[in-house]
Specification:
Blueprint: E1 2-15, E2 22-35, E3 45-49, E4 54-59, E5 65-67, E6 71-72, E7 75-80, E8 93-96, E9 102-103, E10 109-113, E11 121-124, E12 128-136, E13 141-148, H1 150-162, E14 168-172, E15 175-178, E16 190-197, H2 199-210, E17 221-224, E18 227-230, H3 234-240
Length: 241
């Protein structure tokens, strides 16, 4: 949160020795006061009602810095759905109320042994820290680049060592994205999904995998329960909700 400094003038009475007359001396002391972000209005949001309260589906306001209201229509705001703020990639700071207890779920991603969805599962969306659409200028194709969590990278490394020469299929919400053959063990925390995607398709896949309401808002700082999360930490924010 922003902090402003208020200077207070303290009047200190000094007693004179001869005539007990009072002399006032001005002293300045500084107190830091937390300044809250301006609250967005109810009309800045599109939303639906759930059994628990309000689920925000889209931000339609023009502010770059604002606080999401705790209540809309007298009901608590309890959910931020996928891509609710993604059309406003210039947003810089958002304060999320503690009433929010749910973030829209990401698409069901999984890496399976073999070419069928019924194969043994190697990784799931929970092993992915971030996904981004990427243009490969060498191959002149659009791909999706994944960054794994530390544990996900370890799982992937172990699986690729074991499955050299074998097929690994990548599925999202029951749809086959790609089925590459593992040529060597992969030690890095990154992997690329290629499948002849258009730019829009690659973006949509990345957004589904990430499954957070601020995807694409690269300047964002999200404040929630006393902590601040930058864009690269949004997966931690989603986990904290």
């Amino acid at each position: 949160m922003k902090k402003s400094v208020i200077s207070l003038i303290a009047a200190v009475l000094l007693c004179g020795c001869a005539d007990n007359s009072g002399i006032y001396r001005e002293e300045k002391s500084e107190i830091s006061v937390e300044e809250k972000l301006p609250a967005a209005s109810e009309s800045d949001f599109e939303f639906t009602e759930t059994d628990d309260g309000i689920a925000i589906t889209k931000f339609v306001g023009s502010q770059k810095e604002f606080a999401v209201p705790e209540k809309i229509g007298g009901k608590p705001v309890v959910e931020l759905q996928d891509k609710a703020f993604s059309e406003r990639t210039d947003i810089e700071k958002v304060e999320v109320p503690e009433t929010v207890a749910k973030i829209g779920k990401s698409g069901a991603l999984k890496f399976c042994e073999g070419s069928e969805e019924t194969g043994a599962v190697i990784l799931t969306g929970g092993d992915v820290k971030d996904a981004r659409a990427y243009y490969d200028s060498v191959g002149n194709v659009f791909t999706v680049q994944l960054t794994f969590t530390p544990s996900g990278a370890e799982k992937f490394s172990e699986a690729t060592e074991r499955l050299v020469g074998e097929t690994v299929s990548i599925w999202l919400d029951g749809k086959l994205l790609s089925a590459p053959t593992i040529r060597e063990r992969i030690y890095t925390e990154k992997a690329t999904i290629s499948g002849g995607f258009t730019s829009d398709e690659a973006m949509e896949i990345a957004e589904k995998i990430n499954g957070n309401p601020f995807f694409g808002c690269e300047k964002i700082q999200v404040e929630y329960k006393g902590k601040t999360y930058g864009y690269n930490e949004l997966s931690n924010f989603c986990s904290a909700v």
